[in-house]
Design a protein that fits this description.
Blueprint (H helix, E strand, L loop, with lengths): L4 H12 L10 H7 L10 E7 L2 E9 L5 E5 L7 H12 L5 E5 L10 H9 L3 H17 L5 E6 L1 H12 L5 E5 L17 E6 L10 H14 L3 E6 L11 H9 L7 H19 L2
Parallel strand pairs: 3-4, 3-5, 5-6, 6-7, 7-8
Antiparallel strand pairs: 1-2, 2-4
């Protein structure tokens, strides 16, 4: 973990420079904020076993459908990743989505909190959480299982293609893992990746990072697609009213519904192709 954390700190500093100066983080506040759960939620809360511990996860979708592990952004398991998982569960022909709680119940409601949480993440441990989540889905009715994720989760999704042979397909959004975490030239599962042309997270999700990823995937010999969306910035898939407001507050002004729909159609086609029994 020592070699991985500085890489991610460098891009968070780029993103947060105008935002974090006046904010402070209280770990107890993070914990309290994460506790509210709607009684009407379509998600089933479960516990997943990993080594000698368990962690919470949230499941939605058809029982025997192909499974997809949905990996959070740096915010944690908040409304946006749940929106994505719910959308995935409703895509034709139907998927069973599972969100592992990598932060163990904590959620950041502003950028400083999110940075604090991501800086403290055990990335190798997060990969193990994804592995346990994939295996839970396969033990509970899903014959094949893919992994998807956004920002931090996108990077972890691509890492799972390299590190987890049980993964059958990956779709990643605007995030590339460091070479300290995974050698992308050794990817094993098919990877589809999506990036915004205007993404400013240098070396992590900008166009240069996307093209470098494409070269690595080409060297791996696996099926892959890398898509770059003109005029779009980081986190362009976040289209809930709260997500749009949050993006605007962080200086991400684009609102391109056509790009979002195109990305979802490519997602559905990729996962349907590689997760069909």
């Amino acid at each position: 973990m020592v070699a991985i954390i500085p890489f991610y700190r460098s891009f968070t500093k780029t993103l947060l420079k105008p935002i974090v100066r006046t904010l402070s983080v209280s770990p107890s506040r993070l914990q309290v904020r994460s506790m509210a759960e709607s009684a009407s939620s379509p998600f089933k809360k479960i516990q997943v076993q990993r080594d000698d511990t368990t962690f919470d996860a949230y499941v939605v979708g058809k029982e025997d459908a192909p499974g997809i592990v949905v990996v959070q952004e740096w915010w944690g398991v908040d409304y946006e990743v749940k929106n994505h998982a719910l959308k995935i569960s409703q895509l034709d022909p139907g998927f069973k989505a599972l969100i592992p709680d990598l932060y163990r119940g904590k959620v950041g409601l502003d950028a400083a909190e999110a940075q604090h949480l991501m800086d403290g993440l055990d990335w190798q441990g997060a990969v193990k959480d994804i592995s346990a989540s994939v295996n839970w889905l396969k033990a509970n009715g899903s014959k094949k299982v893919g992994v998807t994720g956004y920002c931090m989760g996108g990077a972890l999704s691509i890492a799972s293609s390299v590190l987890l042979p049980e993964v059958d397909a990956v779709v990643a959004f605007y995030g590339v893992p460091s070479s300290a975490l995974a050698d992308l030239a050794k990817a094993k599962a098919p990877v589809q990746a999506h990036f915004g042309e205007l993404d400013s997270l240098v070396g992590f999700a900008d166009v240069t990072a996307a093209k470098a990823l494409e070269e690595k995937l080409k060297a791996s010999g696996i099926p892959y697609e890398v898509h770059i969306y003109p005029g779009n910035g980081h986190a362009f898939m976040n289209r809930s009213p709260e997500g749009i407001q949050r993006r605007k507050g962080m200086g991400m002004p684009d609102e391109d519904e056509a790009a979002v729909e195109l990305a979802w159609s490519r997602f559905r086609a990729w996962m349907s192709r590689y997760l069909s029994a």
